[in-house]
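Appendix B, Record 12. Input sequence as logged:
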Amino acid sequence: MNMKTISAKDAKNSFGSFLDSAQREPVMITKRDRPIGIFFSMQDIESLIQVSDSFKEEIRNGILAGVDDMEAGRVKEFSKDYANDLKARVRAKLENK
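Logged structural output:
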């Protein structure tokens, strides 16, 4: 991900411009050419929180589906052969996208 980079000194000297930039995209702040932080807008943070909550819900639903599968007997022993077959199917699916 490309993001705007600004030195701490420039951020201090042009704070208004720095804040305007951060409303459009995350801005990395450097000191002596080393990254020291990233400034995000509140909108960016709210979006990240929503994504995080969404992933938590997906993980929870996946676990519950797995428990349902176990209770219904729809499980397969995770053998080396099964793992190799699964890897091959996943790789084929990813390469076809």
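The first helix runs from residue 8 to 13.
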